[in-house]
């Protein structure tokens, strides 16, 4: 066992050597066609938090070791009351052969925003960044090289205390795993069809702005309904009036108008503050485009698509980056956006973002963290 510490972060990581890492030829097979979310690297990071008798808590037991199952007591709080939050970010191979992360401090900040809403302890940003650095450097060979490929990182935190009372737990586990990811859409980016759900994802005062597993559990039936009806994804309206477009199950949404203006729903507390959403706001403004954060209704969307005032719509998030939306359907019927295929501005913004992430274009906002 070797001990290592970092100047950037006040916690000491223990490194447990891997007894049997994946053989290079097996790994090469996986990386040739990694898919999404089904293959995993050799390592994981875990850090524990517990509350002491004085009521104060601390992070301890930071470990980088072999990826392995986690033993949980059947009374473990997360299994009963769903105190769980997560993040998603990617490590990208750079044009120059290096490896870089995209805005990891934004993920660190958002994890803590989610933690506060779910009554969980915050993880110091430097510890979050260090945990990501450690797993990426241990699993550097797991980063696929192909176009649109990356090593998807999944940091998450859950209540690990064995206790059935209803109160914030006094023990938590923070874990990071890594999964090689291929190009989400192999041949370019086809436009998807979306279903306007009658279910709501988030209500005012609820957990819509937190990245918590519970929000996803609640979105599975609406998503399954969309698929059953022949669509690819679901889009949710606001809970209060069932009128305003909020977001997809796991992606934010942008509307593009014929005068070059963009609109994305404002962060009202019921929408997840996407880092891709925020980055595209900046990139669109760099292009000299007008971007407004404001509410936009389903009725307006349908009318504007019919009149030609609205020419493109796309969804955005870390996993698929930018996804054009070609067709929308709901109880009141359906409509097509533009030609029904991927739009020009959608593709241009996607290319801009991907070029920065790959180290192929200048990084004017200082988003990339080289490892
Ligand atoms: C993670 C997530 C997004 C996208 O966020 P990114 O930071 O861009 O990946 C959008 N909506 C929901 C509900 C999410 O969970």
Structure commentary:
- By secondary structure, the chain is α+β, with helices and mostly antiparallel strands.
- It folds into two domains: 2-181, D-amino Acid Aminotransferase, Chain A, domain 1 (2-Layer Sandwich), CATH 3.30.470.10; 192-357, Alpha-Beta Barrel (D-amino Acid Aminotransferase, Chain A, domain 2).
- It has eight helices and 19 strands.
- Strands 1, 2, 3, 4, 5, 6, 7, 8, 9 and 19 form a ten-stranded mixed sheet that branches. Strands 10, 11, 12, 13, 14, 15, 16, 17 and 18 form a nine-stranded mixed sheet that branches.
- The chain is globular, with a radius of gyration of 21 Å.
- Residues 88, 211, 247, 250-252, 272, 274-277, 317-318 line the site of pyridoxal-5'-phosphate.
- Pyridoxal-5'-phosphate binds next to helix 6.
